[in-house]
Fold:
Amino acid sequence: MDSTRFEKLQKLRRRHLAYPYRFEVSHQIGEIRSRYEIEPGGREVCVRGIVKRVSKLEEGYMVRLSSPSGVEIVALCDEELKAGEEHTLKGKLGRHEGKLCLFSAVPSEEEAYPIESLKAEYDLDPCFEEVSMAGRLITLRSMGKALFGHLQDATGRVQVYIKRDVVGEEAFKDFEELVDTGDLLGVNGRLFRTNTGELTVEVKSFSLLAKSLHPMPEKWHGIKDVEVRYRQRYLDLIANETARRIFLLRSRVVQAVRDFLNREGFLEVETPILQHVASGANAKPFITYHNYLEQNLYLRIAPELYLKRLVVGGFNKVYELGKNFRNEGVDTTHNPEFTMVEFYAAYWDYQDLIDFTERLISHVLLSLMGSLKLTHKGRELDFTPPYKRYGYFELLEKKTGKGKDFFLKDLQGLRALARDVGVPKAETLTHAKLIDKVFDLLVEEELWGPCFVMDFPKLLSPLAKSHRQDPELVERFELFVAGKELANAYTELNDPVEQKERFLEQLREKEMGDEEAMQMDEDFINALEYGMPPTAGEGIGIDRLVMVLADVDSIREVILFPALRRS
RNA sequence: GAGCCGGUAGCUCAGUCGGCAGAGCAACGGACUUUUAAUCCGUGGGUCGCGGGUUCGACUCCCGCCCGGCUCACCA
Structure:
């Protein structure tokens, strides 16, 4: 804690101004900005002006270009221009931290568009609208008898102008004495634009809403230390625009998925997270203890078996979007608690789900990104349906020259192959695991574009229905994007006798050393005995979907509070 | 669990061969009523992740530990 800030807080306490209960807000910061600032949407323009300042960014430079009358526009360019020189730059018009900005600007000979006209077109005159806004004071520049600063929250940033002649001598002195960057501040005043064109609140009165007892992270570099960013995510969100963007995106992804499913007639439900049997996936569960029941419970590894019980109960289209828990290692694509949406539709089969998945992904992409194409890890991903479809064994055969019969019947040969391609502990793995590992190692990484891998071997899929044309396969597909599994779907096995047999098969796998073989769920079998309609179901990993959309390569970047060791 | 890399001021980072702990921003004092990475003048600020060892002397070398990142393993 910072002692001078603490002393200021004590002063505020004595004056009963320390932690007020309420502040009347007329507008969100983002709301005001979107009212007076039009999105230029990447329009190509050419502007001319004097370079007032050049700042080095991690990639390229940020240039402040000023018109003869002093109106400014920002440009991001690769070339280092010199302050004081006059340049004509051409680029795509957008907004950078709210300000009009030329992106990927390059010098140009074309006729320039006056900066004033651009500003007039996209930055509207607020006409001294009276507003009352609040946010965190993230910058403060003292000009002697006036102060400039920026208020910020997750919706955006707005400049405030505190002039001694307007707020009065007393209040101005209070501000200088008691307010620091980092504090939460409420302001009343009227909106105008400064000479350089920035939307600004001319403050009539202000109220310190909460003091920050710690100094803010550095304004230019933000917080880079990933450990601090994950453990104190609030600081990451305050300091790093990228973090704010990713988590707003995540929220909108979840919203878009819900919208789509609701619109398609699916019912959102909640099923137990504490379960007596953790089944429905191949994974080790977390164990917890219920004092009253005096028994161990498991945190769910998947909601699947409960959702199918609901289909038995007549809820023909259900979905659940929530956390699952798997007691496994942590790495760039795995967090022990992660978010999945699972949905089930009676009277559908997996072919219906292929089409549905393409529509769902299209909906999410179009409503959030405005396009079906995006860049991930520097490569293009094109989500325009239809996605490519490959047979599971077709892919393996392409890689190994060996057909389905080899993988399913020649255990010795498979073991030797697994050893050859570098599957660890190939000697001890079960047949099912061997196939899975070989596929992982040889095929998975290369599945870049969105594509469906179809028709998995039965022994890898204990809950999927046998393939109608090949009893050794099941009607199952996985959606792969950028080498990662994004979705998993199948025609659901609804024959209780066969389901029981498949569970027993899993028990045998377990006895042979597969710790993650699926657990038997007797009550689920019982539900199936009452009759589950023909049904198809799918799970989509939300975290991984967001990773693709946000173009990040660690799952921790899309989880607000990722799992870390206790510090 | 193994290998590699990292942890230095509130933040971002330098720190040479083992010889007084550095910069920018932030903070503090001063000037400045349209600034915006404001500018100008001045000042203060450190458990160098933790614990041992070697040494006249350790941020620096050695050993152990903690935390994180990446890769691999484990695992969807």
Remarks:
- Chain A has a mean pLDDT of 92.
